[in-house]
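task queued by scheduler; priority normal; single chain, no ligands, no partner chains; default sampling; output format set to structure tokens
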Amino acid sequence: MAEVEEYSPEDRAEASDLSGNSTSSPPSPFGDGGGRGSTRTGMLKDQGSLNSRIFFSTERELDLYELEELCDAVGWSRRPLRKVRKAIQHSFLVVSMWEQRGARRRLIGFSRATSDHAFNATIWDVVVHPDFQGRGLGKALIKHVIKKLRSEDISNITLFADPQV
């Protein structure tokens, strides 16, 4: 069964500390060593809607067309789906972010990381749907990725991103 955590205003303040070295926050189920291939999820309560929940998942089985729609929404150029599938399969960590409204589930964020499995990792393809930007969800996504990488004893983490972002 997946672990779930409610998103609180305190969590949002903690999301601004991307170093992962905070001493004031309680332990999170996201950094508990779920590891590569883990299907654990975390839950954030969407502050904008009472009947909406936002979940993180490390499940790799994604609908690539849904991921392509997310990337289209932020203006990224399209990539061949066979290459996207290969990139996901060869990533050390894959994190997706979902909005759940009743029975409807929608992909609203994504990121992945590659690693040498010992010292270094690079975070790639960080994307949050424009309808959900400006709420701290991108920071929460990055913080989640960093915690998962640190739980795998990865100490040197870099971010590959467009300089204008």
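post-processing summary
- The first strand starts at residue 41 and ends at 45.
- The beta strands are 41-45, 52-57, 93-101, 104-115, 120-128, 156-159.
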